[in-house]
Specification:
Blueprint: H1 3-12, H2 26-41, H3 43-56, H4 66-79, H5 81-92, H6 97-104, H7 107-124
Helix pairs in contact: 2-7, 4-7
Length: 135
Amino acid sequence: MNKRDDLIIQLRKEEFLGEITNGISTEELFQNTTLRPILKFQNNLLIELFLSYATKNKNVFFTLSHEKKCIYIDRVTIADTAFRNKLIGVIVGLFSVEEYLEYTKNSSNLNKRIINMLIERWKSQLQLLEKLPDN
């Protein structure tokens, strides 16, 4: 590994999240050893990205009911390609070279996992997304 890779892994503290058992798929292993720790590490930035997106899109999100906010999160995260690609870039940018090479073997499925985990993360932290940002 090079210095960058060592630094990235040290920042994430190689904190494995989720179950790691014999017989799990390589995708699930990658999810638990790489994706979940990065999502946790990047949580505050990902929340701010969503708040910025919602603000730039006429603040509609902030006027919705709890249930409709969940639907909004699903819809914009899946339907807005530019936003989705930005979110994926925030995650992929913290891969080591080795992790990136593993990611490229099945990036389509791993991108779906990233987006699904992010959607669930935002929904579970909806209280952090409910007030208007200070801008």
